[in-house]
Amino acid sequence: MKGNILTPAGWVFGEIHAGPDGRIERIDGVPATPDGNDAPYVLPGFVDLLNHGGGGKDFMDGEAAVPAILRAHARFGTTSLLGSTMTAPPEVLLPALQGLGRASRARPPGAARMLGVHLEGPYINPGKLGAQPDAPAIATPGQLEQYLDAAPIRVVTLAPELPGHLDIIRTLAARGVRVQLGHTLGTYEDGVAALEAGASGFTHLFNAMTPLQHRAPGMVAAALAHAEFAELIPDLLHVHPGAIRAALRAIPRLYAVTDATAAAGMPDGVYHLGSQTVYKSDGSVRLADGTLAGSALTMDQALRNFVAIGLDLADAARRVSLYPAQYLGLTDRGALAAGCWADVVVLDRALSVRSVYVEGECCVDHAQYLRKVTETR
């Protein structure tokens, strides 16, 4: 793990040393300007907090699908993630959560770490389903307790304007669960009330929420005016670059998510997103009617897209690693420093992934792969 290393104190030209426990013991090096040499970039591993699947598999498929998803995203630099659910009736959702709970207990070899679950549905507004199945529900304490017992749920998306949901926000926040506002027809005032009740984020900002209008500022304005954190899908399809730039100026720790589906890392074709059939073509994933349905985005491409719209590499890197880790309250991921997990992504000068380490294990070595390909020609 040698090269231009992005540390909390800035760029260092040197080497990372990891211990047998998978944590960083020390970083040897000297302050450097990464553009002053041809060495690779060494960044903190990417942290994805909204991810429905990849490698042809969906998290709603249950426990058996998880290793393939975690390995698929590790190829693109994601070293830890939340497995995200889709809206479904309890008889479908509860067994899926139980499977994800079991799967999250250990990290498969060669794979990203599953940090827990993002419960994206079913507590959403039926008028803002987006690509979510038509099975929304009002949250009740009893049902929510079942779900929380089934899996380590770290994030819950809900529509705050639905009856009783402000009390649910207070309950979840008191338990340390991050509550995000999304799939909502709520007003600006609903958003502010939810933040005051303990909500702390916004799910795929701009998408599936009331837009900003000057006399009806909507949920988007609540985020832009008050949020410290919010997630956004920077595939340049879900959100225009101009809107991304506006959010970057307004929200200090705006961070990327992929909202990836089973189609991520796969060729064009037919896949599924929960109970929905989706179609990947020309970089997008859509329902049959053309509605965007998650994405085929990977976190390395999210990083490159941030750079393409004008962010410097260090800022872009924070938005795919440090800020999502901070949002979950993690102090040992999303940064390269002594004591942190050795979650590391090595990029070449074109910002393509060359190797990936998860908790000190080399899970991906594209340079080695390319050497093997060359040797067999």
Automatic annotation (TrEMBL):
Pfam (any one): Amidohydro_1
InterPro entries named in the record: Amidohydro-rel (IPR006680), GlcNAc_6-P_deAcase (IPR003764), Metal-dep_hydrolase_composite (IPR011059), Metal_Hydrolase (IPR032466)
Transmembrane segments: none
EC number(s) stated in the UniProt entry for this protein: 3.5.1.25
Active site: 259 (proton donor/acceptor)
Keyword Metal-binding: yes
Annotated keywords: Carbohydrate metabolism, Hydrolase, Metal-binding
Positions contributing to Zn(2+) binding: 120, 183, 204
The Amidohydrolase-related domain, residue ranges: 41-361
Chain residues that bind substrate: 131, 207-208, 215, 238, 292-294
Record GO terms (molecular function): metal ion binding; N-acetylglucosamine-6-phosphate deacetylase activity
Gene Ontology biological process terms in this record: N-acetylglucosamine catabolic process
Hydrolase is among the record's keywords: yes
Cofactor note: Binds 1 divalent metal cation per subunit.
Cofactor: a divalent metal cation
Family matches, as NCBIfam families: nagA (TIGR00221)
Family from the record: Belongs to the metallo-dependent hydrolases superfamily. NagA family.
Protein name: N-acetylglucosamine-6-phosphate deacetylase
Species whose genome carries this gene: Cupriavidus oxalaticus
Phylogenetic classification of the source organism: Bacteria, Pseudomonadati, Pseudomonadota, Betaproteobacteria, Burkholderiales
